[in-house]
């Protein structure tokens, strides 16, 4: 008898595990996904930024199979393995900046951010953490506290970790200082220094954590001067600057790491998502003197840097180089940005088009003057996109930003078909009211 998976899901899973659709995946290849009913979808979601090298890349599959034929687990703290050490060395080499680096691995982006905080606190002897409005850093208790958005991520889950302080981010479309770039001279960066006056003591702050481009917050791209200004203020006060590259890393923005655009060497960098191409792994990479501040046994975990994921991670870095995916991201971004900008000229509900490399989004509003978030329109648009054969996700504090995270390996004709669907669907949703 055929299983009713809608019914089984309702019985087996808690309601807090949300899913955008009742469809179930049967197979996936590069930038397309086929469901169990045989329907094909173009994937502009990429597993929320996990699949920069696409679904089922042949070299990833080969690396995973080869590792499974050897062994699946020992725990690196019991007996190490070459792939872990080689991957750490590769990340140290590739991380922005010339300082000697150290890297180690955990299981998820949230776990990486949490470990970055541990290291910063150990290295500085300070408790405080400064984060930003619209930030997303995870769903553990600590990283929920670091995350900005209340619903659904924090609602009813408190209390949260103390000594977390939040300041506005460089959100040019909705400038917290009501200024315009470049006349503003990136004054928003000075909000960190102002925080020393009425929010937190600088000598009690262990770290400032910033996404180079805010992901869940709405693909918010700060001016190119912004992060270097933040880093300079941190250096003045002995504060560790942490770059959360979980979503921006591994070619998405047109560089291997987004902080390269800003000319900033973070003290600690966190990575995850596309490092593993769908296999669970996250990295913490930092300046050697900071990373080595932690006592032996103070960091790590049973599954962190499992052999399968490390083997895949090495292959992902090879693919990035061999297929020149960061440069391909720039071309994807140009094509998507041009198409979105043309749509913006046609539809006033598209208030802003922004992005870096292939990390492009459009913010929907009910009125381009008032900039009132068009949350209902965005929800209807996403649902209709799926009906029309395109998988997408939204972002932003008000869930009114349509973000694109298609694989960087997407075929050009598939990309064009996806963009056609986006424009045609927008017309349909507006016509439906």
Write up what this structure looks like:
It is a single chain. The protein folds into two domains: 5-53 and 324-432, Aspartate Aminotransferase, domain 1; 61-322, 3-Layer(aba) Sandwich (Aspartate Aminotransferase, domain 2), CATH 3.40.640. 37% of the residues lie in helices and 16% in strands. The longest helix has 22 residues, at 325-346. Helix 8 (226-236) links the parallel strand 7 and strand 8. It contains 14 helices and 15 strands. The chain is α/β, with parallel strands linked by helices and 433 residues long. Helix 3 (58-70) runs antiparallel to helix 11, helix 4 runs parallel beside helix 11 and helix 13 packs across helix 14. The protein starts with a helix and ends with a helix. A seven-stranded mixed β-sheet has the order 4-10-9-8-7-5-6, sandwiched between helices. The chain has a four-stranded mixed β-sheet with strand order 1-2-3-13.
For this entry, give a set of tags.
433 residues; alpha/beta; Aspartate Aminotransferase, domain 1; Aspartate Aminotransferase, domain 2; seven-stranded mixed β-sheet; four-stranded mixed β-sheet; 14 helices; globular
The main pleated sheet reads as: 7 strands, mixed
Would you identify the CATH architecture of the largest domain? 3-Layer(aba) Sandwich
Label the structural class: alpha/beta
Radius of gyration from the CA trace?
21 Å
Topology pattern, helix = H, strand = E: HEEEHHHEHEHEHEHEHEEHHHEEHEEEH
By CATH, the topology of the largest domain is: Aspartate Aminotransferase, domain 2
The chain-level mean pLDDT equals: 97
CATH top level of the largest domain is: Alpha Beta
Shape: globular
Unreliable residue stretches: none
């Amino acid at each position: 008898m055929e299983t009713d998976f809608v019914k089984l899901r309702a019985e087996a899973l808690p309601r807090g595990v949300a899913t955008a659709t009742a469809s179930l995946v049967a197979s996936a290849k590069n930038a397309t996904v086929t469901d169990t009913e045989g329907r094909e979808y173009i994937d502009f979601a990429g597993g929320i930024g996990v699949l920069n090298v696409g679904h089922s890349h042949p070299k990833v599959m080969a690396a995973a199979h080869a590792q499974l034929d050897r062994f699946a687990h020992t725990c690196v703290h019991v007996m190490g393995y070459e792939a872990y050490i080689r991957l750490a060395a590769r990340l140290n080499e590739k991380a922005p900046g010339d300082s000697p680096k150290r890297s180690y691995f955990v299981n998820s982006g949230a776990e990486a951010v949490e470990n970055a905080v541990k290291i910063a606190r150990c290295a500085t002897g300070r408790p405080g953490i400064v984060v930003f409005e619209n930030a997303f850093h995870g769903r553990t208790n600590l990283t929920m506290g670091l995350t900005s958005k209340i619903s659904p991520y924090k609602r009813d889950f408190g209390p949260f970790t103390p000594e977390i302080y939040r300041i506005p981010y460089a959100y040019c479309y909705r400038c917290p200082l009501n200024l315009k770039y470049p006349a503003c001279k990136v004054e928003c960066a000075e909000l960190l220094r102002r925080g020393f006056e009425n929010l937190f003591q600088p000598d009690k702050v262990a770290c400032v954590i910033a996404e180079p481009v805010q992901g869940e917050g709405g693909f918010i791209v700060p001016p190119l001067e912004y992060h270097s200004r933040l880093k300079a203020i941190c250096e003045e006060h002995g504060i560790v600057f942490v770059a959360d590259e979980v979503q921006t890393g591994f070619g998405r923005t047109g560089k291997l790491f987004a902080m390269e655009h800003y000319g900033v060497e973070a003290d600690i960098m966190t990575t995850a998502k596309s490092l593993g191409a769908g296999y669970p792994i996250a990295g913490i990479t930092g300046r050697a003197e900071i990373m080595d501040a932690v006592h032996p046994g103070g960091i790590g975990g049973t599954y962190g840097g499992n052999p399968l994921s490390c083997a895949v991670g090495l292959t992902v870095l090879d693919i990035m180089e061999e297929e020149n995916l960061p440069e391909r991201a720039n071309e994807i971004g140009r094509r998507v940005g041009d198409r979105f900008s043309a749509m913006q000229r046609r539809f006033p509900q598209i208030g802003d088009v922004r992005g870096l490399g292939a990390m492009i989004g459009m913010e929907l509003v009910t009125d381009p003057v008032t900039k009132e978030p068009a949350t209902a329109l965005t929800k209807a648009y996403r649902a209709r996109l799926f009906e029309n054969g395109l998988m997408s996700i939204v972002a932003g504090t008000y869930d009114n930003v349509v973000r694109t995270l298609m694989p960087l390996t997407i075929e050009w004709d598939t990309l064009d078909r996806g963009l056609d669907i986006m424009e045609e669907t927008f017309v349909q949703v507006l016509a439906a009211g």
